[in-house]
Amino acid sequence: MNRFDLPDNLPVPVDDGQCAHLHVGMEFPVDVLTSLPTTNHHTVNISSYPRTVIYFYPRTGKPNQKLPDGWDAIPGARGCTPESCAFRDHYKELQELGANVYGCSTQTTEYQQEVVDRLHLPFDLLSDAELKLMNHLKLPYFTLAELDNVPLIKRLTIIVKDNKIEHVFYPIFPSDKHAAEVLNWLKQNPIE
């Protein structure tokens, strides 16, 4: 099995309430977001499109790199690469619906750059390695001793419009179908 395939027996994440405070209409910390390093080394600009889609994911692995022990047993952990590929594949459609896309994890920009290059992602990945956005928004996370207990953001997506949270997807499963879920939501909620 390669990183693009998801095992059939992955545990399904449940809504544990850790995103309940991220409500519609809540002011989004644009100043914190724009301070995050990006893989193209430009400042994040959420005013270039009417909406901004930010999908948060725990971490991506590299080819031929062993998954952390127990990774598949953590609900929602597996599937970061397939999720990014799905956003890549739907990117043009998302833009046509007025949405720009960013991926965000706590991995470093240097690590993320390899992913952008290897997967040919047409959008930036944001590095929250300093945990600024995670802490400001109180995003849910988990840690693994094998990964030096670095906080890994649980999979969620926030749609921002007019600097406010317009929608939150949490939990997300399966990850490879999530970009289509976001696309459908955008179609059902056209920009007025």
Automatic annotation (TrEMBL):
Domain (Thioredoxin) ranges: 22-191
Protein name per its UniProtKB record: Peroxiredoxin-5, mitochondrial
InterPro entries found in the cross-reference section: Peroxiredoxin_BCP/PrxQ, Redoxin, Thioredoxin-like_sf, Thioredoxin_domain
Main function: Thiol-specific peroxidase that catalyzes the reduction of hydrogen peroxide and organic hydroperoxides to water and alcohols, respectively. Plays a role in cell protection against oxidative stress by detoxifying peroxides and as sensor of hydrogen peroxide-mediated signaling events.
Pfam families: Redoxin
Kinase as UniProt keyword: no
Lineage of producing organism: Eukaryota, Metazoa, Spiralia, Gnathifera, Rotifera
CDD domains cross-referenced by the UniProt entry: PRX_BCP (cd03017)
GO CC terms, sorted: cytoplasm
Naturally occurring in which organism (per UniProt): Adineta ricciae
Keywords: Antioxidant, Disulfide bond, Oxidoreductase, Peroxidase, Redox-active center
GO molecular function list: thioredoxin peroxidase activity
